[in-house]
């Protein structure tokens, strides 16, 4: 099956193109915006350690499985799961895993686009020199003003959604590949540069201590769930994004090697973001737990002070926007691929329909930071609810399904054939995917539900 390219969709031009696109999907707001603020909210070092363990023990083997299922199934996640469950003589109900993923991607994109819109707004703030010579209080009030202003947020959210749809409509090769080729290296270098600045900021030691000195007294069941959920979120796992990219991957490319490159780059960018941000937090007596506004309240301070800060500020927020864009296209791609396959839509119509619905939900998210901020379900506003539901519940659940399917239902010969690993490495992967990932995910869920101590 893996030798036949899909008739409907195209293929990546090379392994390198796949690595770029998958890294583009993985590296995004999750690394630069979310990782630092949830690390801040969850007490630092111990949280970082649990997150890293989750990336290694759950994320990597599940990413291998997702790419494998995608490449062998050669269709959108729903149809790939259907094809492979037939091949494995398993229940065709496995295709609902694809549905779960499409729904998760859709719900994530609704708020992702709003936050990416903030980054766009900050491109213009940087360009207009609004960060220059400001103190921490003034930088903070730039952010609070934006939060209080739904129309500006909706405007930028619309711009971002339009950009996403424009790329998705043009299709995988033309649209996605070109978008990531220069972006990833550029982003990496600017993060390194910001770390260099953080070293001189006066809070460097304290920042590093916060991030890398584990204090487990700060960790509760919810922090563990958040760390695990974030491992899935940051690697774009559990919802079919990596699976659908895998379905465009040519045969005989080493899936395991590619996974380590993608996961390694993703983790490196997140850690660099943290190392750049926490020293600024401590040097300026800001709150580590200040939530989703953390990077918007810290990095502009650095841009306002450093030489060449105007240029670096503009550059950074442009790159953040582009990094978000290469992730957002993968959030909507499973839905688009499915509409194309099952409803005979062309990519244009499929993208338009999925995108409009997503945009509408995003408008609600923009309201949740102001006029709807007091409307809460389970004590969460719409943004917090969508984030919790997707990152902490739906993605790990999707990951669990993928692990169970790849480990217990797919035939070992088939995964062996697809992965082409040396026997001992294959055994490690298979042990992780059968005996480590499923019980670990279930335990974290039960723990968070308070079922276990
Ligand atoms: N991995 C992306 C990020 O860290 C978000 C994402 C999640 C993208 C799930 C696709 C699928 O920003």
CATH architecture: Orthogonal Bundle
Query: Kindly, what is the distance between the CA atoms of the first and last residues, rounded to a whole number of angstroms?
Result: 46 Å
Amount of helix: over 70%
Unreliable stretches = 1-7
Ligand inventory reads: phenylalanine
Number of strands: 0
Q: What count of helical segments does DSSP give?
A: 19
Number of domains: 1
Largest sheet: none
CATH class: Mainly Alpha
Global morphology: globular
Helix-strand sequence: HHHHHHHHHHHHHHHHHHH
Radius of gyration: 21 Å
Strand residue percentage: under 5%
* CATH topology call: Hydantoin permease
Structural class: mainly alpha
Average pLDDT metric: 91
Secondary structure topology:
Blueprint: H1 15-26, H2 29-41, H3 45-73, H4 77-87, H5 96-127, H6 136-147, H7 150-170, H8 172-180, H9 183-199, H10 204-212, H11 221-234, H12 241-246, H13 255-283, H14 294-305, H15 309-343, H16 347-367, H17 382-409, H18 412-419, H19 423-448
The site of phenylalanine (PHE) has 15 residues, from helix 1, helix 2, helix 11 and helix 15.
Notable characteristics:
453 residues; mainly alpha; Hydantoin permease; disordered N terminus; binds phenylalanine
Commentary on this structure:
With 453 residues, the protein is mainly alpha-helical. It has one domain: Hydantoin permease (Orthogonal Bundle). The chain contains 19 helices and no strands. Helix 5 (96-127) runs antiparallel to helix 15, helix 5 packs across helix 16 and helix 7 (150-170) crosses helix 8. The longest helix is centred in the C-terminal third of the chain and has 35 residues, at 309-343. The chain binds phenylalanine (PHE). Phenylalanine is lined by residues 25-26, 28-31, 108, 233-234, 236, 239, 241, 327, 330-331.
